[in-house]
Structures are given as structure tokens and as C-alpha cells.
Amino acid sequence: MREIKPRSPLALLLIGIAVLYAVVLFAAPLVAIIYGAFKDGIDPIIETLTDPAVLHAFEVSIGLALGAVLINTIFGLVTAWVLVRQKFRGRGLFDTLIDIPFVFSPVIAGYAMIVLFGRGGWLAPPLFPIVFALPGILLAKTFVSLPFITREVQPVLGALSLEPEYAAYTLGASRWATFRRVILPELWTALLYGIVLTFARAVGEFGAVAVVGGNIEGYTETATSFVFRAMNDRNSTGAYVVSLILCLVSLLILFLMNLLRRRMVVSRG
Amino acid sequence: MAEQSQVYGSSNIGEQPPSSRPYVPGFGAWGLRLMAISYLTVFIVIPLLVVNVQGLRFGLDVFWQSISRPEAVSALTLSVTTSLVMTVINTVMGTLTAYVLVRYKFPGKTLFNTLVDLPFAIPTLVIGVMLVLLYGPQTIVGKFLQQELGVRILFDTPGIVIALLLVGYPFVIRAVQPVLLQMDSNQTDVAQTIGASPWTTFRRVIFPIIRPAMVTGALLSFARSLGEFGSIIVVAGNIPMRSQTGTVYVYTQVEAGNMQAASSVSMVLLLVAFAATIGIDMMNWRRHARN
Amino acid sequence: MKHFTVIAILVASLLALLPASAQNTPPPITLTLAGYAVPREAYDEIIPLFQQYWLAETGQQVNILESYQASGAQSRAIAGGLEADVAALSSEPDITRLVDAGLVNEDWKANEFGGIAADSLVVFAVRPGNPLGINDWVDVIQDGVEVITPDPATSGGAQWNILGGYGAAWRGFVPGYEGEEGAAEFLRALATNIAVLDRDGRESFLTFERGIGDVALTYENEVYAGLLAGGEYELIYPQSTIRIENPVAVIDTYVDAHGTREVAEAFVNFLWSEDAQRVFANHGFRPVNPVVRAELGIFENGAGAAAEATPAAEPSSIEHNPLIAFPPVTDEFTTLDIGGWPQARTQVFGEAGLFTQIIAEVQGR
């Protein structure tokens, strides 16, 4: 559909409604949070940002989100490959299963981990503490962000022409070299897009982490758990400041997503 | 499944053909398959198994009792109804927004288009915090709504719907947008030239083409909002039978140590959400079959 | 990245250890405290005092990790594998669960304070000027009064609130709702008026602070914490109310696994020291140490000031906050007066409990 300049009153009305809806829904809460973070001046902000508990919470959130990205990138790529390129019994089932974390209540995922690894659990005692410790949070973050990379890579991989691949084989390239030189470059943008979405989801996770982490300050507390706790500690400024930083992180993520989307349009257009 | 990834945000402008690639053997096929299967088993099959075993561990009777407890029924109903209300509003507004974003040039459009994805990037807990700041009873907006209009947003149903609207915002837009982009403008131009009203043009020409995408976006946002927790926990009142949603009920049951009830109710939630995603798959399949 | 962080932390902590071990002092020890939601501010003051005390006594540094959440939830987390060394919870059943799980020895109550770190009372917070004239339990259940209390399924504080009203009615302090049956009717009326049921005492009181509801049922100390933080509401004592007893226990299985028994026991004993009890009092808790109770003029029901023999207090650097007072109420009862915890736990709460059934019934209408 062609883009046109809005001239009719109807067109202006439609634009007005769409913009107003977005403003009421998004801009107002964003303004509210900026106001909330700055309303007591700059001192509480500095105080929050130099609070070791806050810094540690961000470290845990970001470090473990990167861990989840690493796991999901490696295994997500392999899974996408297997689901697109291999035919085997049960493939359809596995393909469907991938969407589960997308609709699964994260709280129950966290609780499943306690059933597995908690005291007296099915797989207890594990070799090292998992629940109420950092590995549990890593598992929780990996679970909730699992679908993104596979789901981004799958369609691109499925649409790839096989000819360059055959050509590479014919010319004597090894399978790994073919993957790295011929296939991966094609997947790169979709993969990065998936990585960005995975990271965003993993950083922002709260429900599963709340159940599995135990909210031990300076240890298993994440940035989102800090927000929740600060709200309950009458440290609302702290909650708003950390929320605002999380918003800024997500705006950065959005910017990256947008950049990647343009690249995708260009590369496919 | 190609449809899904559009909605996760990537713009697969144009339809991806369903994958019908022949099996390319080799490449350590077995090793890779093993890797993929163990990954999905560890992260998805086992947790699912745990929940099902916990939910059914005292037999079907107890499972049935747990999900037919009035509090559970009411929590599930609240989840489904708030999600449905959200889905209806979101589908209308999302389609309109997608149309505006595709059809018209206006200042700030690029920024607008970028910000549509915000809910994919922002922690949902932060969405809840924002809503408390905006609609709390002590804020200007909250006071006005409560005192002048007698509407309580926070700790009641409207707060839940607003939170879900934020969470579900991008789904319909991102599903409908690429289809509209692909549409031939000539058709609408012709319709208008022969004197059809804008409404008729929409109803007769545009709507039939974007309908599948609308439904996909709607179902996805519905499925997504059933499992929503982070924003709801902050804005919902948690009163059994009144302002406790399914996921919050599950959380309360987990915290209260009633694992069997928590598992049973989350099985039902999962089933409903999953039925929605299967609906999407079937629709895509039908469409591909038709083409 | 995660590995780098872990390695970096390991290296950093090794470096931090080097000078200490060079001076031949014991290595620092870490203690994990798992608490219920509301006493955080008090512990934030007590912990540094204990750290000084322990350093002076043993030359050892002690780091204390803290986790706070709703008492019931915290107790279940500990039972599920949250390896805390000390549990400071809201009510006895939450420690009993740990005893049943084999984590805490049966004799945890065997000291002069019965394992109770601090007391409090169930009180009301109302809007400035008390516009609805809520002065006793009977006013709370009037039509149209919006009541805020946490959820007894997860919160210890909520169980205290419910038992407070239930006991007051049972004991004849709510006209028209006397005796066991009257008390059940009272709970029905109370449940009808509940507007928000948060998961823990703190969340619930903050909901009230945000302007929801006409009256909050809560701990006396929680209202003081809010008033000290600048909250605007009034503290109302009903004629008859329950004495809240907040237990604390060393988690035997975990301290033995961590090798922290000595310091964990010292920490718990320190909570009963005069200074720690004064800190509790400054945060609105009713102290259990008789010396500090005497300083504040808190005596058992009916007992005059002269009746209690009070040892002389040692001079302390901690002064009492003059804004906090602990007036007596006409009828201060304990759980023992209404049958004890085990009975309350099964008959009032729990899946088939009276309150659980009532709330589903009245809110479902």
C-alpha cells in the first residue's frame, strides 16, 4: 500500500486517534516514571545509583541475561537447524513445544525448578545449589527467553536457497566452513534480532526469578526484584530510578531492534 | 510458524513459504538432533512434566476439585475476560494504528513506529510500577478518576485491562502492518473512484485481506496476556473472587504451599493459551493450503 | 560474561582475604537472615551493632545477607531449600513448619523468651481525623467500611489480624458477636468489607498509604514505621486485641552444614540484648527484655509498675524515641487464650479453615 499525505478529515482523525491512544497508553506512564524518579531532586538518584545492592542487582540481571543469551544462542541455532533441515518423528511436537515459555506463567516455571532441585526435590541434592542461588536464576531466565532465537532464525533458514550451499560443498568446503561462510552470514541479522529480544526478555523477567531466587539482597536479588522490594521499603524513589534505568535499557534495545529491522528490509528488499 | 516471528517483532515483509526443504544429511546430524532434543527436554518437557505430575498427583478427582474451587474458577474467569476485553480493544486500535502507520505520512512517524515495540523490550514489572505512578489514588490522574468519575483503576479490573493493553500493544500492529504494506493500493483507489465510501472500502477491500493477520495478532496477544504476571502483581488487588487473576492465584497458591492447586490452575491456563496458539497454526496452515 | 563475573568475584574475594589472613585473624564469615516483611528497618540497625559486637568479641568480621518476604512464603522457601542460617518470622506456625521439615530442633523455644524476638499488637490505622469514627472492632465491620489486610494464606501478619478480631469477638468485646458462633459471624462481616488482600503486611500497609481503604488492620510497629516515615494517618487501639509474638530461630540443619552455628546463635541471643531490644522499641515493636520493658513502662495486664522487679539497666547509647509509646489496652490476649496456634492454624486458616471458606463465600457474591 502506498504512503500518502493525509488530506481528508477522516485521515487526520485516524492519525489523531492512533497517536492519542499511544500517548495515553505509553507516553503518560513514561512521563509519570520520569517525574517519579526526579521529583525529589538529584540526590536520591545518586544515592540509588551508588547503592552497592543496586549495582549488584544490575550485575546479576545483566550477567545472567547474557548467560541466558549464550545458552539460547547456541542451542536455539542448533534447534532451528534441526527443525528446518531434519525430518524425524516427533519433529512437529518439538516445534510446537518451543512456544510454551511464551504462554507459560513464569511463576509456575520457577516453582517447577523448586520441585526439581529444592530440598527433597526430584533431582535433589544437586551437585551445587541451584534454587535460591544464581544458577536457578540463570535457568529461569533461559526458560522464559527460550523461543525467540529459534523462532527468528527458523523462517530465514527455511527460506534460504540451497544452491550456494551445494556450490560450496562442490568446491570442497567443509561442512563447518560452509555453515560459517555461506549460511551464517544469511542468518546473522535474524540471529542478532533474536539475541536482542532474548536479552530484553531475560533482563526483564520477574515472576520466575521471584520464586526461584529467594530475593537475598546482594546475592540473588535482580534489578526487577529490587524494584519490587524498594516499592515495599518506602524507597519509592529507588524503585522509580531503577525502573527508569530499565526503561532506558529497553529504549536502547528498541533502537537496536529498529536498526536491525532496517537491515533486514534492505537485505531482503 | 513464520507468522509468529513477525509478531515477535522481526519484519518478515512478505510471506515466508512453508519450509519444504529436503533433508540435507550429514553435518553431524545425529549430534545436532540430540543437542536440540536435550535442550527442549531440559528446559520445556521436564518443567511441563513436573507441573502435570504435581497437578495430577492426587488423581483426576482432586485435580477437578482444585480447578472447580470457586476462587480458582473466578481467577481463571477474570484472566480470560480481562484478556478478551484487552484483545477486542487491542485488535481495533492495533489495526487502526497499523493502517495509519502504513498509509499516512506524518511528522514523528518513524519514532512512533519504533516505539510500538516498547512492550517487547520493557520489563512488565516496570509497566506495573508506571501504572501505579500514573493511576495511584494519590496522583493527579488517579485522584481525578476516583473522585470525579468514581472509577478505581488500581487494584481493580480496569488496572488489569490497562496493564494488558500495554503488554499486548505491538502484537496486532506487527501482524497487520506487513500485510497492509504488501497490499495493492490500486484496489482501494479503484473502490474509491467508483464512489465507495471509506467505510465500504475498508469493509469490502481491506478487511478481507488483513483479517487472518488480525486474528493472528489478536490470538497471540490473548495467549500472551493470559500468562502475564509482572505488571498484574503490582496493579491487581489480589482479592479472591474479585481481583485475583489466574497467574496471581497460582503465585498465591505457590507461596501458600498448595502446589497441587497451583499446578492444576496453571495447567488450565496453559491449555487455554495453547489452544489459541494452535488456532494460529491451523489458520496459517489453511491459508497456505489455499494458496 | 557470567564466568568472567564469577572469576572476577573469586579473584577479588581472594585478594580481599590476603591481608586479613596475613594478620592471622579469623576469616570473615557470612550469615544469611531470612525475615518476614516488616522488621527490615529494625534489622538494618541491629545488624551493624551485632557486627561490631562480634568483631570486638572474636576479631572476626561477619557479613549478613538478608532476604525479606511474607512470613509464610519465607518459611516455605526455607523448607524448599533457601539455606538461611536464621529465620525471623511473623508467627509460630511458620517456625513449626521448619521443625516439621527437620530443619529446626524441637527445643527452639527453650529459652527465657520462649523464642520470641519481639511483641506487637494488632491495631488499626485510619485516615487523619478518623472521619468514619472507627474506634473498635465493631466499627470495622460497619457497612461500607473498606478494610485493608494482607492475605492469611501467605502472610503471618494477616493471620494475626484475623485472630485479633476473631478473639476479641469470642471474648465478648464486639457487641452482638459474642462467643464462638458470634466470632464466626464477625469474620463473615469482616471478610465482606475487605477491599484489597495483598501478600504481606508491608505491601498491604503501603496499599493503605497509597490511599486505598478506610482502615488498615496491621501491626502496631508497622503503623509506627509508617508514621516515622512521614505517613499521615492515625493509630487506633481497639479495646481488646491480640498480642503478636514474632519468633526467631537458628536453622539447625543449615548452620551445621555451613559451620555457622556459633555466630548464628550469638546473633539470635544478641537480639534479646538490651540494645537490640531498644532498637526494636524504636521501630515500634514491644520489647520482650524485662529491663527494656520497664524503661518503657510496659507491664503485663493488671500488674502495676511496682509489681515487676526490674533489674537496673546498663547505660546505653541508644535513646528511646519519644514519639513511640506503648499504651496498655483493656484486654490484651494471646493465641493461648483462644486455643493456641495449632488449633487456629487448622480451624481458622488452611484450605478448609473458617476464614478461607468465608472469604471465598462472601467475596463471590
Description:
The complex is a heterotrimer of chains A (269), B (291) and C (365). Chain A has helices at residues 9-38, 43-50, 52-85, 91-97, 100-103, 106-117, 134-144, 147-159, 163-170, 175-204, 207-213, 223-232, 236-268. With 269 residues, chain A is mainly α. Chain A is globular. Chain A starts with 8 loop residues before the first helix and ends with a helix. The model of chain A has no long low-confidence stretch (mean pLDDT 89). Chain B folds into two domains: 24-56; 60-290, MetI-like (MetI-like fold, Orthogonal Bundle). In chain B, 77% of the residues lie in helices and 0% in strands. Chain B contains 14 helices and no strands. The longest helix of chain B is centred in the first third of the chain and has 34 residues, at 70-103. Chain C is α/β, with parallel strands linked by helices and 365 residues long. Chain C has two domains: 22-118 and 245-297, D-Maltodextrin-Binding Protein, domain 2 (3-Layer(aba) Sandwich), CATH 3.40.190; 119-244 and 329-363, D-Maltodextrin-Binding Protein, domain 2, CATH 3.40.190. Chain C has 15 helices and ten strands. Chain C has helices at residues 2-22, 40-58, 71-79, 92-100, 137-140, 156-170, 179-193, 201-209, 220-228, 252-258, 261-271, 274-282, 290-296, 341-347, 354-363, and strands at residues 29-35, 62-68, 86-88, 116-126, 147-148, 194-196, 215-219, 234-236, 240-250, 331-333. In chain C, strands 1, 2, 3, 4, 5, 6, 7, 8, 9 and 10 form a ten-stranded mixed β-sheet that branches. In chain C, helix 2 links the parallel strand 1 (29-35) and strand 2. At the A-C interface, helix 3 and helix 12 of A face strand 2 and helix 8 of C.
How are the secondary structure elements laid out?
The complex is a heterotrimer of chains A (269), B (291) and C (365).
Chain A: H1 9-38, H2 43-50, H3 52-85, H4 91-97, H5 100-103, H6 106-117, H7 134-144, H8 147-159, H9 163-170, H10 175-204, H11 207-213, H12 223-232, H13 236-268
Helix pairs in contact in A: 1-13, 2-13, 3-7, 3-8, 3-10, 3-12, 6-7, 6-11, 7-11, 8-10, 9-10, 10-13, 12-13
Chain B: H1 2-8, H2 29-56, H3 59-68, H4 70-103, H5 109-115, H6 118-121, H7 124-135, H8 140-148, H9 157-182, H10 185-193, H11 198-226, H12 230-235, H13 246-255, H14 259-290
Chain C: H1 2-22, E1 29-35, H2 40-58, E2 62-68, H3 71-79, E3 86-88, H4 92-100, E4 116-126, H5 137-140, E5 147-148, H6 156-170, H7 179-193, E6 194-196, H8 201-209, E7 215-219, H9 220-228, E8 234-236, E9 240-250, H10 252-258, H11 261-271, H12 274-282, H13 290-296, E10 331-333, H14 341-347, H15 354-363
Parallel strand pairs in C: 1-2, 1-3, 5-6, 5-7, 9-10
Antiparallel strand pairs in C: 3-9, 4-7, 4-8, 4-9
Helix pairs in contact in C: 2-12, 3-4, 6-7, 7-15
